[in-house]
């Protein structure tokens, strides 16, 4: 492929990698990772609520990695309150998983920025092999994509398997018990998924630029090796 086209491809990949870093940083700071509704089970059972009456006992909850907001509905109107994960909720949530999610988000931002620098260096500089050349570009894209996948897996397990929303809703609740009524991942979670897919796209762009995937042997070398073996 001609050099100008390679520069364009690497520049596009660098811009995409930078967008992923900025998107991840924005996602980390928002409360739009999970949104849902919580049913005040105790209040609903006391009045035997059903149908339209049940709506008076369904509140909202939304949260991110550091803080969130919930609206309690126990039949007497909604009461909004703010909460933070650090340090308030660390005693009731799977802290090791949650901290790991935050660390992998940081790693994703760092490696996306590193990938941006190396893509631009390959586009406008004079790179050499190892970590500056195509092998390095594949490496940074792979690490960033792996971090994104780990974020999605760990956070999904924290929310679904460890019932994170329910634990938050019942935090410091002495007389009322809340159950998850509905729950869905929000914009920031899907932003991480898109960023992971973009790094896969970057790897395909590197291949499209004419560079083989790592650990693949060119056919010419295999033919030469076979000829040498026959000589001996």
TrEMBL record:
A single Gene Ontology CC term = membrane
Q: Which residues form the signal peptide?
A: 1-27
Q: Superkingdom of this entry's organism?
A: Eukaryota
TM spans (from-to): 97-123, 135-155, 189-209
- Check the record and name the Pfam families matching this protein: Clarin-2
Q: How does it sit in the membrane?
A: Multi-pass membrane protein
Q: Which GO terms describe its biological process?
A: equilibrioception; sensory perception of sound
Q: Where in the cell is it found?
A: Membrane
Which protein are we looking at?
Clarin-1
Q: Does the keyword Membrane apply?
A: yes
Protein's organism: Mesitornis unicolor
- Tell me which UniProt keywords the record has, alphabetically: Membrane, Signal, Transmembrane, Transmembrane helix
Family that this chain belongs to: Belongs to the clarin family.
Is the Transferase keyword given for this protein? no
């Amino acid at each position: 492929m001609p050099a100008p086209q390679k520069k364009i491809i690497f520049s596009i990949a660098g811009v995409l990698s930078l967008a992923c870093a900025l998107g991840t940083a924005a996602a980390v700071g928002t409360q739009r990772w999970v949104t849902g509704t919580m049913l005040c089970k105790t209040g609903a059972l006391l009045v035997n609520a059903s149908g339209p009456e049940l709506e008076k006992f369904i509140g909202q909850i939304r949260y991110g990695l550091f803080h969130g907001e919930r609206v309690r509905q126990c039949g007497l109107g909604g009461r909004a309150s703010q909460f933070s994960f650090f340090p308030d909720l660390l005693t009731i949530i799977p802290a090791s998983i949650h901290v790991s999610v935050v660390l992998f988000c940081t790693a994703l931002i760092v490696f996306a920025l590193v990938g941006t620098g190396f893509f631009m260096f390959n586009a406008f500089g004079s790179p050499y092999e190892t970590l500056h050349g195509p092998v390095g570009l594949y490496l940074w894209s792979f690490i960033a994509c792996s971090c994104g996948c780990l974020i999605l897996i760990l956070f999904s397990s924290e929310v679904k398997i460890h019932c994170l929303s329910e634990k938050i809703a019942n935090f410091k609740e002495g007389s009322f018990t809340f159950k998850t009524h509905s729950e869905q991942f929000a914009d920031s979670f899907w932003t991480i998924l898109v960023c992971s897919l973009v790094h896969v796209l970057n790897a395909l762009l590197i291949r499209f630029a004419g560079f083989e995937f790592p650990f693949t042997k060119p056919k010419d070398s295999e033919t030469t090796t076979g000829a040498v073996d026959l000589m001996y």
